[in-house]
Each structure stands twice: as C-alpha cells, then as structure tokens.
Amino acid sequence: MNGGGDAAPGRRLTLAGQFLALQLGIIVTVLVMVGAVSLAQSDARLRQTESRRMLAVAESTAARDTIRVGLGDPGREEVLAPLAESVRALSGADLVVVHDDRGRPITLDPGPVDGTDEADLPGVATALDGRAWTGVTDVAGQRTVAAAVPVIGEGGTILGVVVAGSDYPGPGELLVLATPNLLVYLGIASVLGVVGSLLLSRRVKRQTLGLEPEQITRLVEHREAMLHGLKEGVLGLDADDRVTLVNDAAVRLLDLPPDSVGTALADLDVPGGLRDVLVGRVRGRDTVVAIGDRLVALNRMPLETEGRAVGSVTTMRDRTDLVELQHELDASKTTTDTLRAQAHEFANRLHVISGLLELSEYDEAARYVSQIGGARARLSAQVTERIQDPSVAALLIAKASLAAEQGAQLRVATEARLGQLSEELAADLVTVVANLVDNALDAATQNAGPDRRAWVEVDMVGGGGDPVHVSVRDSGPGVPSELADEVFQHGYTTKDGSGRKRGLGLAIVSLVCARCGGEATVSGSEFTAVLYDRHDDEENGL
Question: What residue spans of 149-304 are helical by DSSP H?
Fold first, then answer.
C-alpha cells in the first residue's frame, strides 16, 4: 500500500526543519536589526558630537591673535606651527592645520597629514568663502571628522583657514560606544523574539490542527493500518489529478504500479472510461466499470477546504462475484418466467381444446392439436438442426416462448450453424445469448406498434474448436453511435431506447467475452459477441 500527503515536485523541509529555519531566521533578523540600529545611532551621535567639538577647536584657534598675526605677516609664520601643535595636544584633536588665504597648508603634522593639500580637505574651499564647514573626509588614507573655520582679519578680510580633525573610529569602536544602549536594544530584541516564537507556535499548531508530534505519529500509523485493512480500494487525487494515496486493494483492482503516489493520473495506464469516473467527468453512485475481466463499482467524493476544491477520494469494490451471483439469480428467474410463459401458453391451448370438445367439434380439435404440435415440433427441429449444443438450443426454444408471450417473434437465422461446445464455453455462451436476447426483446417490444410487430433474430456460427461469433438484431431503434463505446463499460442497456443505466446485462456480456479472450461490440440495433474456448487455450498452454 502506498499512502502519502500532498505530493510536491521538489523536496520539502520537514516540520522540524521548517520550525528550526524560521526560528533561526527570526534570531538572525533581530540580531542584525539590533546591530544595525546600534551602529547607526552610534555613528550619528559620533558625527554630531565630534563635529561640534572639532568646530569649537577650530573656532577657538581661529579667534587667537597669534593666528591672525602669523597669517597677516609672512615673516612671522613660524609662530603658527607651535601654536597649532599646542592646540592639538590640549584639545585632544588628531589634526590641527593652518592654511593661508590660498588654501595652502602652512603647519603640517609630521604624521598622518603629511602632504595634505586642499584636495584632501574639501572644507578649506568652503571656509575661504567665509563659511564654516564640518564633515567626514579622508586625510592621508584615514577617515577623519573635520571642521574648517575661516580666520577673519580687520575689515572682514579672509586671512586663512584653521582645520581641526579627529580620527574616525572603526566598527568595533562604534559598537563599544553603543554599549550603553545595547542592553535596551537587546531587551527589545528579546521581546520581538518571544512574540515571533509565539506567532510561530500558533502557525505550527494551525498547520498540525493542534496535534502534538506523538498524536500525529499515532494518526499516521492508524491511517496506514486502516488503509491496509480495507478490503475496498481507495484512491485519492489532488486538485491537479495527481495520486496522493492508494491502498493495496486499489493497486490490485486498477493494476497500478506500487509507486504511483505523486504521479499524475494522465501518466498512468488507466483506461479512458475509468479515468472519466476518477476525475469526475462521469458521475453517479456505484458507477460500474469493466476493468479487464472484473466489474468494479466506483464512488467518487469531491474534497473541499474553505470552499476550494482540493481533490477527491474514490472508493471501489469488486462486484464480479456479486454480478455472477446476480446472473445465476437472473438465470433462475428467466427459467421461471419461461416455464410460466409455457404454462400460460399450454393453459390457453387446453382451454381451446376443451371448448372444441364441449362443442363436439372433434375434427376441429384434432386439427388444432395437430397444428400446434406441428408448430412446436417445427420450431424445435429448426433450432436443433442449426444449433447442435443442447444447452444453447434449449435456451433459444425457451426464449421463443417468452417472446411469443410478449407479442414478439424470436427467430434463428437460416445461416446459423453452431457445433458442439465444451462445457465452459457453452455456459459462457448461454450467459451472453440470454442477456443479449433479453435486452433485444425489451428494446423491440417497447417500440412495437399495431402495424409493426416486434422481432429478434439470433445468428451464431462456430463451435467444434472454432471461435463462436454471435449476432443479435432486433426491430428496436438501436444504440446511438455516440454511446457505442460506453454501453459495455458502464452497464448501459437499450431497454428504454435512451441508453440510461438500467442494469448490468451488457456489462456481464462484456465481462464474459473478455474472460474468453473475445470482445462485444454494437452497431445500431445489432450486438455482436466473439468468444474463444478457454479450455482449448489451457490445453495449448496459452
């Protein structure tokens, strides 16, 4: 037995795998968010604080008289370097550089600003225009938070520029600076993690219908055991007509491969009539389908979730044995009906003879007896002359009496020639002929009228080791051409001229023919059946 859940084209994570992946995703997301927020706030705070501090250092330096004197008198530029170094050391800045009115650095730190020019400090040009500048720039390959302030002389003349800067810390230092707020963020992250875990738990419970893993395990085991123990076949399909579950009985009845779960129904070797029932194109209760030499009754139940079709489940039962029992009961009923018809016929004739005798019409009575006895003898002679098998001949004679009672005529074709049959083939042929004749009588009598007498003609050839070909025609309207391929598959009859489901007579005919290696076909009002002798096949090792 093969059972499965929703088959997917690709490999899917298990429930535990999904749970772990979602938990890890939540944790990683929260940590990344916390780190990003902490670094961003620390960076913003550092930029703001250091920019203000460097601006204050630059402004206080530019306001010194010594700076104005050194920039205003080229002969006294030597006082600028010691002053800049002193300011740098006292303020804690990493860079203090004085530029002249052309933006050329006058004081250079021997370290990181060696070779610094206006291109390295873009704020110098802004300061030469009379505006202070703060920002982050690269100085000799080192990121620096810098501030540039103009040095203003008498009359508002720009004498030069003072630049103060502080080295920009790396990510690690920023993270250390963010430590005071990190605990707050971790608390927020913990809350988010708990909320995320609760939401995840609700999702998992919703997906598992509130069942715990142990309960799910027991449920699956129970379902597997139940499907194993069912005598009826069970086949489940999803919305795309892929097999989702199938038990042993269904595999045996439908002749499916054991690994058919997850396979599309179109990719399986399923006959068209059976596929129509499984996918819902043919609907009905206990729909009978001939599958090989078996008759299977199918019941399809669509599945819906929240108003959306999600697939179907079809149960199936092997009705072959039941049909054979029904056939035996039908044969007994046919025999009873035939005896009743003959008894009715004989009673009517006895009444006629009794009346003639009471009227002293002895000659007429003798003639009547001779007439009816000759008709019966002629019918028996015609049948036995053309049909050598006793059981088939007896069936036709009995059916002739039944047809006469229904106001119809049963005749045997003049070309009919049937030889001796084996016991098995004779029993199968009686089944086929009885069902075809009954079906034909019903179709013919329902369409008979005052000026149109119903008739049925039987023709058969073969026997003596040859295949038997049976043809039964009637005066009815026949089977519509569009139903010719379905009448044997789903147990249709022509009893009411419309091809409605009325019984299993034609399905039994198809089943018997298939079991004998032959087939049954229909064209209009003529049914044809071909049967082979299974006894001969067994002796020949076939």
Answer: 171-177, 179-207, 213-229, 248-254, 272-279
Among 179, 211, 243, give the residue marking a domain's end. 211
> Which residue range is the domain that position 46 belongs to?
1-211
Count the neighbouring beta carbons within 10 Å of the beta carbon of residue 281.
Answer: 10
- Whether 370 is covered by a domain: the verdict is no
Q: Which residues pair with 463 in a beta bridge?
A: 466
Query: In sequence order, what DSSP letters do the residues of 459-478 get, joined into one string?
Result: EEEEETTEEEEEEEEESS--
Neighbour-count burial for 474-501, b at 16+ CB within 10 Å, e otherwise: bbbebbeeeeeebbbbbbbbbbeeebee
Query: Does the residue 345 lie in any domain?
Result: no
Strands (E), 306-453: 308-318, 408-412, 417-418
Closest C-alpha among 526, 516, 333, 506 to residue 435: 506
Q: Decide if 200 contacts 23 (C-beta within 8 A).
A: yes
Count the neighbouring beta carbons within 10 Å of the beta carbon of residue 223.
12
Record the pTM.
0.47
pLDDT at 324: 62
335, part of any domain:
no
Q: What is the number of structural domains in the chain? A: 3
- 458-506, pLDDT tens digit by residue? 999 988 888 999 999 998 888 887 777 677 765 554 454 444 444 567 8
Where are the extended beta strands (E) located within 339-401? none
Q: 126 and 55, same structural domain?
A: yes
Write the pLDDT tens digit of every residue in 193-224. 777 777 777 777 777 777 777 777 787 777 77
Domain boundary among 178, 211, 244: 211
